Amino acid sequence: MLLKLFIILFLAQNQVLAGESLSSSSSEEDGSSEHDDDEHDKSSSHEHRWGYHDQEAWRSAYHDCNGKSQSPIDIETSKAIYDRSLPPIQLEGYDLTGHPGLTLINNGHTLKLSLPNSMRIVKGFDEVYLAAQLHFHWGTIEVPGSEHTIDNVHFPAEIHVVHYNSKYANISEAASKPDGLAVLGGFIGIGLHENKNYERILSSLTDVSIEESNTQIPGFNIRHLLPNNLEKFYRYNGSLTTPPCFQTVNWTMFNDTITVSRKQLAALEDTLKAGQNQLLSKNFRAPQLLHGRRVLSSFSVLPSVEGANIDTFPGAETFPRVKTSGTFDTLSRGDILAIAFGALFAMTLLGFSLYAYQQRKKYSKFKKDSRQNVIYKPATKEEV
Ligand SMILES: [Zn+2]
User: Fold this and answer.
1) C-alpha of residue 69 to centroid of ligand 1, in Å
2) At residue 158, does pLDDT exceed 50?
3) Which residues constitute the domain of residue 345?
């Protein structure tokens, strides 16, 4: 009887385990219908062979993903080197108002908008760079999904506008060349108001919810998807943040953030599907090691006094700029006030304690005297 029960339990457990491995393998299967095709051509960077859930696997499957100039990175503001010779970026042809239609696609890894090469960066680099596409990286409501981080802090999302060097025929040719690509990146935060420019893309999300689906959206001014201030940026040499991770990207990350409403961000996080029925989210690569690379900044870090009055919340239009040295440099106005009040409170407490101590001493002296009297008196009385 006991043996029978044991056998039943054993079989039931096996079934559960089998079920689990089946479901996990089917989740691994996401996008695996392309696996067979890929096996024939391993060298080609097939978009569906990789996933964000196992980024370590990229290193073995794609040689460059193991390189020493990978992206994204954490931008440590105190270590960024101010380079006043960095030329400001000048854009041309970004206003696509009246353009008949831009293709918006869900490619299973991101939301991508194709761009005409009439859009270009005319100043800021040694060559003119032509736009090819823009796309986004995001997380979930709990997990902020920017790729780059500032002092180890993620932003809710990130936009990348990808350009290629005009000396090459197209982006595929440029992608593997050392001076091939220039990506303009912007951090996306949450603001109080709806961002009408982002809405031009986000309002079409439901049309591309299925992987590999696309739609046409009317042209608009793409410049408005980037921060107002393009003068403050970080610059470093890095790579594509997806396989094949070619180390051919001249990165520009703008200091000022773009804001969208909480609702808009939620739409980006919750609408798109990857594979059969999986949500397309958390499509960001973890920050990579610098391996001695230097991060330049186009602006100087502000002195700490100015630093105290730059917190422009609410809205988080800019992230707090952390200064180069000194304890107070990293403190916000709120922190300083808190410390001041804390110190004031501590001093008051100390003063009160001293007063109380003195009073107590006086009282206890008096008490001691009276007690002595009390003790003494009967004694004397007895003696008497
Ligand atoms: Zn990207």
Assistant:
1) 16
2) yes
3) 332-366
